[in-house]
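Action item from last meeting closed. Structure (290 res):
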């Protein structure tokens, strides 16, 4: 990282890098500590050394934007208000705990050393190129293959869904106009139960692939044993980023989901490349015992 920073002389760093799959964090939390906690600390240390050596005008304009998650806030009840930027942290999985730790390191680096940081906490992303261990691409690909659609518990867990291009626009907006040291929540204003998500995917596939072996595709839905510590509901209050930076999502869930389903149907080569032997081994490890 030190050599890279010296060579490239960046004006800003946007820190997306993270282990991000809750199920994987349950099976192997050490990877999450190494990447999300130690990795963030290492990046902050090298960034701080690089930033400290910049000319004064470059130091003033430099930014370190840390991309985080709504999961650091814990779980909401059905009638609870949405997470705001002042909601107390209450992570419930090794993944969310590791991200909470990284958020705290970023905050501390700003308050202790003055590094000009920004933090974003976003809701569940979906869209093209998402690795198919995540809910939406997993359900699309399993349904197309006539395989079971595994839903944890009763399928009533609620998430707020954000189309990936809207997330990217938000990050660019915060990077350009956010107030140093501040946190901005980003969400799609689309709270959906997991069962609703799978139902919507099945309806789209019934329309787009009417000749599949399993139509209606909803007959493939299979309820499986819930994962440990499964948060019941997430919801994001996005008034701050809307009020201060005038950002709003452009995609509705319906338009974003249709784009996503069509992308996976049109990119079979990409799917084949990523669903390799190691992916199949992971699916067996995570779902076979359920």
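Sequence:
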């Amino acid at each position: 990282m030190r050599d890279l920073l010296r060579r490239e002389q960046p004006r800003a760093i946007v820190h997306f890098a993270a282990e991000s799959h809750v199920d994987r964090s349950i099976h192997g939390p050490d990877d999450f500590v190494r990447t999300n906690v130690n990795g963030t600390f290492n990046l902050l240390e090298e960034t701080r050394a690089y930033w400290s050596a910049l000319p004064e005008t470059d130091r003033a304009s430099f930014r370190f934007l840390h991309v985080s998650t709504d999961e650091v806030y814990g779980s909401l009840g059905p009638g609870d208000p949405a997470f705001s930027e002042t909601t107390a942290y209450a992570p419930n999985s090794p993944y969310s705990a590791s991200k909470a730790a990284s958020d705290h390191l970023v905050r501390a680096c700003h308050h202790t050393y003055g590094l000009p940081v920004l933090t974003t906490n976003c809701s569940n992303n979906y869209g093209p190129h998402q690795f198919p261990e995540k809910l939406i691409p997993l359900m699309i690909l399993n349904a197309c293959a006539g395989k079971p659609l595994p839903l944890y518990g009763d399928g009533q867990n609620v998430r707020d869904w954000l189309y990936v291009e809207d997330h990217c626009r938000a990050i660019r907006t915060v990077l350009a106009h956010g107030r140093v040291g501040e946190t901005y929540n980003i969400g799609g204003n689309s709270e959906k139960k997991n069962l609703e998500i799978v139902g919507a995917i099945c309806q789209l596939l019934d329309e787009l692939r009417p000749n599949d072996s399993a139509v209606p595709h909803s007959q493939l839905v299979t309820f499986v044993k819930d994962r440990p510590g499964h948060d019941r509901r997430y919801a994001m209050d996005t008034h701050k980023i809307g009020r201060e930076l005038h950002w709003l999502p452009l995609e509705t869930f319906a338009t974003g989901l249709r784009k996503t389903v069509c992308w996976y149907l049109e990119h079979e080569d990409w799917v084949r490349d990523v669903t390799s032997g190691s992916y199949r081994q992971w699916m067996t490890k995570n779902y076979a015992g359920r």
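Note appended to the action item: The chain has a mean pLDDT of 95.
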